[in-house]
Every structure is written in structure tokens, then in C-alpha cells.
């Protein structure tokens, strides 16, 4: 994995570099002290992860992350900050993690391990256009090969996506957006910010509050919501 650090405090930057170099195989390719320089760098370079402070000169870390989240090739964002109040915004842009200063060694090491595991899982998941409909998921610390056709729905809970078949629950350490990008779009639809549904498993479309829908699925006692922002696309997809 290739990474950059965006941090204007020298001591904090050196401490973070120490943890990354000693507890991971992540390659730090550059360091920055302000957001504008990062945007210039990102226009010509691709990295896998950005360790990002929020209180940086010229362009604060939250605005920088929002800009980067619109890139076609989006790196993981790990916020490293002394400010608790931006955690909700970090969740909105699907940041990988949000770590508060002063650093906790245990917390940093745990984050680095999860980051590398997530990167490895992305490599393992078949990309769009693959001839296989199999996908690798996790259950009880084991990688289970699952047929995509058996997936009923998926739920996002922070940085983990939970995947449900008729009888089993699995997980993958990817955001729901990342996971959705690796599913076949002829069967799966992002019906809500936190949900993906297999449209071939829909049994009933139930009108709900504010002109939205709940989707009752075959064989299982569960209803998946359709958000208002996804309603128009869903209606077109289902010819409603």
C-alpha cells in the first residue's frame, strides 16, 4: 500500500510515521503540511491511503477529504485529529477511521492491521467483468467463498459491510460503496445509503412513509428500506 501523511505538526507526524513503519508494510511516499499541496499531488499521483489531520493550513482536512472522495480512484481516508466534533462528517464521506490525539498505540496498531486486511480483501474480490459470480467474505475469522446469487441484502455499519444470505451472516472490512462496486449491477441495487438489495430476491414492494418503499424479501422475515434519494432510480429499475 502507498500512503501519504498530511500533518503540520512535526512531532505528531514523526510519531505517526514510527507506528506505520514499525507495525505495517505501508509505504509512505510523501508528506504534506497543507491541503492545497495535497490536491496538486493527487491530480498526478495515486495512493491507497491518506493519513489526514483536520486542522491544517489553507484547506482544512474535512474539505480536503470531501474533494478527494469525488475522485474516480478514491484512497482510504484515516483522520488523525484532536477534534471529536467532525466524526459525523467523517462517517458521511465514509472515512476508514477517525483517531483522536494523543495517539493510543493499541488503537493505531489495530487501525493499521484493519487497513491492510481491507486492502487485501479488495484484491481478493472479483472485479466487474469477471467470469465468476463468487465473492470472498468473512465468517468466524475464515474466508468463505459465497455465490453472489445467494446474497439477499447488505447493511453498512461504520467501516464494515454485513452480507446476508438466506441462512448466514458474513462481513467484509469495506465500506458499502466499495463493496457495491464489486457486485454485478444486473442483480444488486444500492437502495439506501446503508443498504444494498438483490433485486431478484424482492417479494413485495410495500408503500411506506414519505412516499418511499420497504422491500419484503423472499424466504426471510426482513424488510429493506428504499430511501427518497434512490426512489426515482428504483422505480425506473422496477418499472413502477
From TrEMBL:
Residues 2-116 form the Response regulatory domain. InterPro entries: CheY-like_superfamily, LytR-like, LytTR_DNA-bd_dom, Sig_transdc_resp-reg_receiver. Gene3D superfamilies: 2.20.25.10, 2.40.50.40, 3.40.50.2300. Keywords: Phosphoprotein. Residues 135-240 form the HTH LytTR-type domain. It comes from the Bacteria. PROSITE patterns: HTH_LYTTR (PS50930), RESPONSE_REGULATORY (PS50110). May play the central regulatory role in sporulation. It may be an element of the effector pathway responsible for the activation of sporulation genes in response to nutritional stress. Spo0A may act in concert with spo0H (a sigma factor) to control the expression of some genes that are critical to the sporulation process. This is Stage 0 sporulation protein A homolog. It comes from Clostridium rhizosphaerae.
Amino acid at each position: 500500500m502507498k500512503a501519504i501523511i498530511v500533518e503540520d505538526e512535526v512531532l505528531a507526524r514523526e510519531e505517526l510515521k514510527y507506528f506505520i513503519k514499525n507495525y505495517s508494510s505501508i509505504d509512505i511516499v510523501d508528506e504534506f503540511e497543507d491541503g492545497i499541496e495535497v490536491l496538486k499531488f493527487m491530480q498526478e499521483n495515486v495512493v491507497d491511503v491518506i493519513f489526514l489531520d483536520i486542522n491544517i493550513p489553507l484547506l482544512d482536512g474535512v474539505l480536503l477529504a470531501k474533494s478527494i472522495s469525488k475522485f474516480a480512484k478514491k484512497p482510504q481516508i484515516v483522520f488523525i485529529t484532536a477534534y471529536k466534533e467532525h466524526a459525523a462528517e467523517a462517517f458521511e464521506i465514509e472515512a476508514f477511521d477517525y483517531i483522536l490525539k494523543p495517539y493510543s498505540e493499541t488503537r493505531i496498531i489495530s487501525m493499521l492491521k484493519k487497513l491492510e486486511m481491507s486492502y487485501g480483501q479488495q484484491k481478493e474480490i472479483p472485479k466487474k467483468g469477471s467470469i465468476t459470480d463468487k465473492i470472498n467474505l468473512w465468517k468466524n475469522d475464515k474466508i468463505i467463498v459465497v455465490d453472489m446469487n445467494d446474497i439477499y441484502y447488505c447493511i453498512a455499519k461504520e467501516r464494515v459491510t454485513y452480507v446476508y444470505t438466506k441462512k448466514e451472516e458474513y462481513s467484509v472490512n469495506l465500506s458499502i460503496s466499495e463493496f457495491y462496486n464489486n457486485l454485478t449491477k444486473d442483480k444488486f441495487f444500492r437502495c439506501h445509503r446503508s443498504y444494498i438489495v438483490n433485486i431478484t430476491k424482492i417479494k413485495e414492494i410495500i408503500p411506506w412513509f414519505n412516499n418511499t418503499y420497504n422491500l419484503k424479501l423472499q424466504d426471510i422475515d426482513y424488510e429493506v428500506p428504499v430511501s427518497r434519494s434512490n426512489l426515482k432510480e428504483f422505480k425506473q429499475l422496477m418499472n413502477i
